[in-house]
Write a structure and sequence with these properties.
heterodimer; A: alpha/beta; 15 helices; B: alpha/beta; Rossmann fold; Alpha-Beta Plaits; 6-stranded mixed β-sheet; 4-stranded antiparallel β-sheet; 11 helices
Chain lengths: 374, 308
């Protein structure tokens, strides 16, 4: 047991000797949270919009007004023909165009369902979808207003089938994606430190030949592994705390839940990523190779974690695969604890899955390591 | 019985292959207590393979090595706790200081701190590294690195030490110093097993095993080995040794012709004389500066054994 302490002591000597490393521990959470928090946003703002009005009536003016005052759109002006719309879309001057047909007002009053056309630049499918949803929302709002003006009673309006979704976003009232992204960044950062550095630090011993030297000493392989990963666990813990503070200071996203619940779950989560690091070290000879293996894992883990892409949107088969991804569970847990303050007893399934997965990965990787060196 | 228990290293019919390559072919030898035993041969002769099996990092295909009377394969923990091993490549932490590296290896063998301090002082006496205590290992010279690696492995005072080409790539002065240290260790009762590709280091060993392509060609004291050289040896100095070597190498008059740094070495039977060589050189219109009868060195012996 004592030998584990000696290895830990040696690891910290090496870590503290690298000035870059210290910068990495304390600087990187801030930089990542600031840059990624601002850059990764699912909000659709300032959609450039142009309008073609073939009707020039009071109603069509009202329609245009409704869009120009809405914060989600940036009104670029009125165009005179569909041809011009096409050119503007091609050039990228606008992302969205509304075309109000002739006799819009007359048809509306007659009740013959005039159709307003919306042309959207669909290159960024996500934003296009969100922009269209905004268009619909505004259209529904206008229709209600007009029905009321036309003297239709409130009870009558209810009978007419209009979409009546009244969205109220819980936990993230302003529906800002930064609230969702920041805890996600913390989770990914934890994964990077633990899987990347573990693999590299073990393979480094192989590269410089010290592993061979260590093996011809009375040290046991479990002592060596624990001695190697415990320092990184401590580093990851520090980094997580710096990240939590950075998220609060920069985005005012402070944790709602119990910090010890987060520590405990982060601890369980780290075992699985440490295990990945150890595993990477058993199948590689150089630090570059170990980095590549860890990187390969991280890309999949991140994409299949629900960080950017909701898991419910994935094909069933892929959804099945995500159950093997420890980050999937931790992504749920860290968001729940951070944004909702969910107590741990409601998250026990994810916690258990993660803990089992973590222990399994770590033990498997350690056995492989033992076999490899003895 | 006690003699066998005390025998530090005994290698019996050791055999090891890597795929199609026979790295070690039925090698047997033993190393006695308190001697410096040198396993000498060129790169790829199988020296490192034997050492790696000996220090329990590799398994033999057949045959066995015993360390102090115990089979290495079944007593890994015993071997690792009682042996000192210095790998071929420098393998200390370059970002730790001299002192920290020494402490770390002392710690791993659970040497109490007070004793560590005493031992470090003693090790500094011969290594002369005391002024560099606080220097990072990566910034030491090649010779100093090797002395530090040796010191680290001596922290637990093993009775048997194994060194794989410790003087490889080290300058001649540091090499000499290093061998002096090994000598004094052996005088104090430590058994030293060392490999080298430098033939001239053979004379510094008490006993020598010559190894080539996985076979041990001969084992004895350096003197006895050199006396076993049969035939007479001549050195021919030449301004253009390569041309002379090419013209002479298949000459039926000589047993063998070899190219050396100081000229051409010619081995012949007892009937060969300086004059016969001179006549032959003149007949072939080869220029030479001097022909003289010389005593064989280890390299001459090695080449002659190798060709048999």
């Amino acid at each position: 047991m004592q030998r584990i302490l000696y290895i830990i002591q040696k690891e910290f000597r090496q870590i503290l000797r690298e000035k870059v490393f210290i910068g990495l521990i304390f600087g990187s959470p801030f930089i990542q949270i600031v840059i990624l928090g601002f850059a990764i946003t699912m909000d659709v703002k300032n959609v450039s919009l142009a309008v073609v009005d073939y009707d020039h009536s009071v109603y069509s003016r009202r329609l245009i007004d409704a869009f120009t005052v809405a914060g989600s759109f940036r009104f670029e002006g009125v165009l005179t023909s569909e041809k011009q719309v096409k050119i503007a879309l091609d050039k990228g001057d606008i992302k969205l165009a509304l075309i109000i047909p002739p006799h819009f007002e007359r048809d509306l009053i007659n009740g013959s369902h005039p159709k307003v056309q919306a042309l959207v630049d669909g290159v960024d499918g996500n934003s296009a979808g969100v922009a269209l949803a905004y268009v619909n929302q505004i259209a529904i709002k206008l229709q209600k207003e007009w029905l009321k003006n036309a003297g239709v009673t409130v009870s009558k309006i209810k009978e007419i089938h209009l979409t009546t979704i009244e969205p109220r976003m819980q936990y993230n009232a302003s529906l800002e994606s930064v609230n969702n992204i920041v805890p996600g960044i913390l989770a990914v950062m934890l994964m990077i430190i633990t899987s990347f550095l573990t693999g590299m630090s073990i393979v480094r011993e192989r590269e410089i030949g010290t592993l061979e030297q260590l093996m011809v000493t009375p040290i046991r392989s479990y002592e060596l592994i624990l001695g190697k990963v415990i320092p990184l666990l401590i580093v990851a813990f520090l980094l997580l705390n710096v990240g939590i503070i950075a998220a609060g200071l920069v985005f005012n996203v402070w944790m709602k839940g119990n910090i010890f619940a987060l520590y405990l779950t982060a601890f369980f989560f780290s075992w699985s990523t440490l295990g990945v690091g150890v595993f990477a070290s058993t199948i590689t000879r150089t630090q570059q190779q170990a980095m590549f293996v860890a990187y390969f894992f991280m890309i999949f883990a991140t994409l299949l974690s629900g960080f950017f892409i909701p898991i419910e949107n994935m094909p069933k088969v892929i959804q099945g695969i995500t159950y093997l991804n420890p980050l999937r569970y931790f992504m749920v847990i860290i968001r729940e604890i951070f944004l909702k303050g969910t107590p741990l007893n409601l998250l026990w399934q994810e916690t258990l899955a993660m803990a089992l997965f973590g222990m399994g990965t770590f033990v498997f990787a350690s056995l492989r390591f033992k076999k490899r060196i003895s | 019985m006690t003699a066998i228990m005390n025998q530090p290293i005994r290698v019996e019919n050791l055999y090891k292959t890597y795929g199609d390559v026979n790295a070690v072919k039925k090698v047997s030898f033993s190393v006695n207590e308190g001697e410096i035993f040198g396993l000498i041969g060129p790169d790829g002769a199988g020296k490192t393979t034997i050492i790696r099996i000996l220090v329990s990092l590799l398994r033999a295909d057949s045959g066995r090595i015993s360390f102090k009377g115990r089979d290495v394969a079944g007593n890994t923990a015993f071997v690792r706790a009682n042996i000192g091993y210095m790998p071929q490549r420098f393998s200390l932490y370059p970002d730790l200081t001299v002192d920290e590296n020494l402490n770390f290896f002392g710690d791993l063998f659970r040497i109490p701190k007070a004793i560590q301090i005493q031992r470090k002082e003693r090790l500094f006496e011969f290594s002369k590294l005391a002024p560099f205590k606080k220097r990072r290992t990566g910034q030491l010279s090649g010779g100093m690195k090797q002395k530090l690696a040796l010191s680290c492995m001596l922290m637990h005072e093993p009775q048997v030490i194994i060194l794989d080409e410790p003087t490889f790539g080290v300058d001649p002065i540091s090499r000499e110093e290093f061998w002096c240290i090994l000598k004094s260790l052996a005088q104090n009762g430590t058994t030293v097993f060392v490999t080298t590709a430098y033939m001239d280091e053979a004379r510094l060993c008490d006993r020598v095993g010559l190894i080539f392509e996985g076979d041990v060609l001969a084992i004895d004291t350096p003197d006895k080995l050199l006396k076993s050289f049969t035939g007479s040896l001549y050195r021919v100095g030449s301004a253009s040794p390569h041309t002379a070597y090419e013209k002479l190498q298949n000459n039926p008059m000589f047993v063998s012709v070899d190219l050396f740094g100081d000229g051409i070495h010619i081995t012949g039977d007892q009937a060969l004389t300086v004059n016969k060589i001179k006549n032959e050189m003149e007949r072939l219109a080869l220029s030479y500066s001097a022909v003289s009868k010389i005593h064989p060195e280890m390299e001459d012996l090695f080449l002659s054994l190798m060709k048999k």
